[in-house]
Amino acid sequence: MVLLSSEAVIPEAKLTQYLLIPLPKADKSKFLAQAGYTLDNWQKLEEDLRTQVLSQLAELIETNRYGQKYCIRATITGENRVELPIKTIWMVTATTTRFVTLVPDKGANT
What we know:
With 110 residues, the protein is of the alpha+beta class.
């Protein structure tokens, strides 16, 4: 278990064109909306990923040709104080830590 860089790359498009818009399959926007995260305040989600998630220990999942893949399980609290258990995936190379995705953590209480 390690701490990942708080300077990680979190692509704006990953938040604004994937996580926070309704999708026909694997939609996460409704889940995130419960805690008040929307397209209108996508910067708050980015900030909370940096402060609430990257401050937690990351577990190495695998090493592949792209680098080392890590998982961070955390509870993220939105501005409306609703807490969401999430699992985030990060890719680490020799030079960069990059946000890959976020999913509801269905196994949070197990």
